[in-house]
Amino acid sequence: MLRSVFSLARPFASASSSTCRPLLSLLPARSVWSTGQEPQRSTSYLDALTPDEIQRVSSAVKQYMSASGVNNPRFVAVSLKEPKPNMKVPPKRQAEVLVLNPSNGIATELLVQGEEVLSSEDLPYGTQPMLTPADCDLAETISKSSEEVQRALKERYGITDMDKVVGDPWSVHLASEEDRLLVEGDNKPRRLVQTFLYQRMEGDGLECNHYAHPIDILPIVDLNTKSVVRIDGLNRLPAPKIPTDSVNYHRNLLHTNSYLETQWRPRMKDLSIVQKDGPTFKVSDNNLVEWQGWSVRVGFNYREGLVLQDVKYKGRPVMNRASLVEMAVPYGDPSAPFTRKCAFDVGDYGLGYCANSLELGCDCLGHIHYFDVAMADEFGNPSVKKKAICMHEEDTGILFKHVEYRNGHNESRRSRELVISSIATVVNYEYLFYWRFKLDGSIEFEIKLSGELSTNLTSPGEDPTNPSHGVLVAPGVNAQTHQHMFCCRLDMSVDGEKNTVSEIDIVAEDSRYGNAFGPVETVLKKEQDAVRLYDANKARSWKISNAEGKLNPITGKPTAYKLVPFTRGAAGPTVLTHETSSVSKKGAFAQAHLWVTPFDEKERYPAGEYTPQSLEQDGLPKWIKGNRNVEAENIVLWHSFGVTHVPRVEDFPIMNVEHTGFSLKPDGFFDGNPAIDIAPDVNKGSKLNSLNCCSSI
Asked: Which of the following is catalytic: 137, 168, 345, 495?
């Protein structure tokens, strides 16, 4: 589903902040960083690799591979091998490296310390690591350069200008036995990408909303042989017409629209966020953030993107680590070739690789602190992505308020949040990730979904005016029903390493007058007991309690936080594909809203380490077969949630954001309301609208 959001082969082109256009290239590692000169590594042993470390590691790997007869390996990833949290003696820094041998298509994992390769292991034949941005650019190039594809486009549609053709690269989800046969190459395994084709009809560059002009043939390319192995849809004759209506949102093409607005509405009056005294947060040691009792280290890697580490409140631990670790995006159209249309956006492409360079005054408002990040390109060279993470404060309305009605006295405080965010573009979709730290001791994770719908023509036999598995969002343009199923990994440490999870349901109970109801708590003792579904009818939540004797002095119960699902957006179902489908097997994490496992540093990704073209079920369902104890253990919560998207006409040509997310709320962690010491304040910048004010009546 990814088209690279940066190109390692293209020169960097700057863009002013007024354009609100993401900077889509990685920069040389020696460039000036957004927050000053390139910082040194922090004192935390969990900090990501620096550009210098990446360079040393990749040089060691190249030398090692060359000695093994492998020249010019393609680097898939270079990242820190994260040690266990809370180690008393800082371990030596090690790097995990993943490379592909272009001569035989075999991937190799290496462990490197300094300039020494400690270990090396080839992955099983056919195992495919994630698709890098370079892979996705290559897939589109192979597809558009194919003489067979060019001939088909000319014969079916009269298209001869390949610069007007777009090929969105998607990983190949193996849904059938026929699909599984695709992976077998002659001399080496195939590394497959399917490229959904569209035509650009308006404008001279990339501005055109090509999703208004879908093409019905679908080339499948092999990156290892750099060839097209099959083109689906050629047997559909006569070829259906490509929709021609102009449906654009780009500022340069709004005037071309066939039926939507062609001119800007009157500009709204300025609404500025001004912090004349500067921000309340403090950043030290490169990535250590402190704000209103909270402290957190801000991390990042190529796969998960934004990562939070060592989360504490006034020195008391809450979480060791939190990140989004997987996302399954199944499309619900049973017509070929759309049975293969499913992406695992984290494991297939990497949210870090897809991250935007954010722009001041567009993506983030107020007094902003940016974090730049370093990653490796396909050649192993270190590169910097500027402004990959944004941090700022937001006013979010009233935090608490009460008026003593007897005398009219008002006590009211404004709510403010520290927001740490990152945005990833995965071809057509934008995923906006926000970790929100609150004055009441809560943490909220919000995901906003925007971007463009992945569109297609209706399938043979479908009513072209009323698609059976989608919605017409423009004349002749079908947008299929689909889901976005997310999974967060939460390594909890509430007041200590050993925690226990319990399920809290609010249920009615028998009573004389029938008015009694209250919470019922059930401890989740074993892994298989802890595979749970959310139940809105019971206001279900899950409490994570300290199991080391830390008690709340008021209640006498263990200190705790609780996981509250769907505090942003509508509550959603688990994955809706049938349990026998390859989506449900591969994405089994999305069949439940909660899983709990004991901490194991090897258990990182709920659908397994390698999702592209994977056949065997891996990850969570495999790990819990041992039914390990999770009571009073160092535990990890895996929270799955998502959005079921039945497209609307209003979602086209670009989607206004949809929301989903969850909260971690203190439940007996404090002695009372932790925000009562916030001093009264009146915002002196607020003004009365003198033209229509109730006080003048």
From this structure: 345
* Placement of tokens 């007996």 in the chain: 668
From 211, 429, 431, 561, the catalytic residue: 429
Residue 161: count other Cβ atoms within 10 Å of its Cβ.
9
pTM: 0.94
Report how far residue 8's alpha carbon sits from residue 26's, in angstroms, rounded to the nearest whole number: 7
Q: What would the two tokens of residue 74 be?
A: 């393609």
Name the maximum alpha-carbon separation found in the chain.
Answer: 87
The answer to whether the CB of 521 falls within 8 A of the CB of 356 is no
**Interstrand relation of 443-451 and 455-456 (parallel, antiparallel or unpaired):** unpaired
Q: How far apart are CA 461 and CA 501, in angstroms?
A: 51
Q: Residue 62: how many CB atoms within 10 A of its CB?
A: 18
Percent of the chain scoring above 90 in pLDDT: 85
Let me know: does 449 contact 327? Beta carbons within 8 Å: no
Residue with tokens 């993401």: 22
Q: What DSSP assignment string belongs to 241-296?
A: PPP------STTTGGG-SSS--SPPPPPPP-----TT--S-EEETTTEEEETTEEE
What is the rounded distance in angstroms from the CA atom of residue 108 to the CA atom of residue 123?
Answer: 6
Taking alpha carbons only, the member of 431, 435, 359, 438 closest to residue 395 is 438
In the structure encoding, which two tokens stand for residue 470, read together? 């989608």
90 cis-preceded (ω within 30 degrees of 0): no
Reported as half-sphere exposure (CB side, CA atoms, 13 A), residue 162 has a value of: 14
- Rg for the chain, CA atoms, rounded: 26
Which tens digits make up the pLDDT trace of 564-593? 999 999 999 999 999 999 999 999 999 999
pLDDT above 50 for 539: yes
DSSP state of 679: P
Separation of alpha carbons 355 and 339, rounded Å: 28
Q: Which residues contact 633 (CB under 8 A, 6 or more apart)?
A: 498, 499, 500, 547, 598, 599
- Signed CA dihedral, 330, 332, 334, 338: sign only: negative
Three-state DSSP at 517 gives strand
Amino acid, single-letter form, for residue 526: K
List pLDDT tens digits, range 290-344: 999 999 999 999 999 999 999 999 999 999 999 999 999 999 999 999 999 999 9
Residue 38 has pLDDT above 70, yes or no: no
d(CA 585, CA 580): 7
pLDDT band at 40 (very low <50, low <70, confident <90, very high): low
Nearest to 667 by CA among 522, 536, 532, 541: 541
Q: Is-contact 348 611, C-beta < 8 A? A: yes
> Does the annotation count 429 as an active-site position?
yes
Instruction: Count other C-beta atoms under 10 Å from residue 17's C-beta.
Output: 12
- Tokens encoding 654: 């670009």
